[in-house]
Specification:
heterodimer; A: mainly beta; four-stranded antiparallel beta sheet; B: mainly beta; 0% helix; 52% strand
Chain lengths: 115, 111
């Protein structure tokens, strides 16, 4: 079974530029998560989708971050404009459905460096 | 509210045991444990639910203390492969699977 795919794996941009990350979850997984992991910290949930609807985006900085999950499969996360403090690893995860008893399967992440 | 993990780091020799704790100030319904090796994605280890249900890898053991709002992960007879950073993620009953992750416990197992 193929795992969660993410691209690109690494991205270096200058502040005020825009950037987009792509995630392809495990086939059939209804729930998709985007996390931000700053060096030395645990993952912080940015947004959770159930199929193509948003379940939780309370910690998404909506003035600069946006995300979509068209057709309930692939998802993209965009930052525009980027700030220095956005430097982090962006992890995508998926699970068969929402709910507390479903483990999350993480992708390899995209390491973003903002200069 | 982010759960608090302790200790922050632990160094073990192969074969030794260790306990990692995860405490929450909010009522817990679920606790997830993941291990992340440097530069890699977190990997699922175990889920524990209030009421006693749990699932995970056979070689991993953990407990859920409802009264203390705490979960503990037990590393028994540690192996070199146990090295990594361990994260607990906690969720409420209405969280739709949303987890708040702790800052992690770094585990180093030496030969």
């Amino acid at each position: 079974e193929a795992g969660v795919a993410q691209s690109p794996r690494y991205k270096i941009i200058e502040k005020r530029q825009s950037v987009a990350f792509w995630c392809n979850p495990i086939s059939g997984h209804a729930t998709l998560y985007w996390y931000q992991q700053i060096l030395g910290q645990g993952p912080k949930l940015l947004i959770q989708f159930q199929n193509n609807g948003v379940v939780d985006d309370s910690q998404l900085p909506k003035d600069r971050f946006s995300a979509e999950r068209l057709k309930g499969v692939d998802s993209t996360l965009k930052i525009q404009p980027a700030k220095l403090e956005d430097s982090a690893v962006y992890l995508c995860a998926s699970s068969p459905s929402s709910g507390p008893y479903n483990e999350q399967f993480f992708g390899p992440g995209t390491r973003l460096t903002v200069l | 509210q982010q759960p608090v993990q302790s200790p922050q780091a632990v160094i073990l020799r192969e074969g030794e045991d260790a306990v990692i704790n995860c405490s929450s100030s909010k009522a817990l319904y679920s606790v997830h444990w993941y291990r992340q090796k440097h530069g890699e994605a977190p990997v699922f280890l175990m889920i524990l639910l209030k009421g006693g249900e749990q699932k995970g890898h056979e070689k991993i053991s953990a407990s859920f203390n409802e009264k203390k709002q705490q979960s503990s992960l037990y590393l028994t007879a540690s192996q070199l492969s146990y090295s990594g950073t361990y994260f607990c993620g906690t969720g409420g009953a209405d969280s739709w699977g949303k987890l708040q992750f702790g800052a992690g416990t770094q585990v180093v197992v030496t030969p």
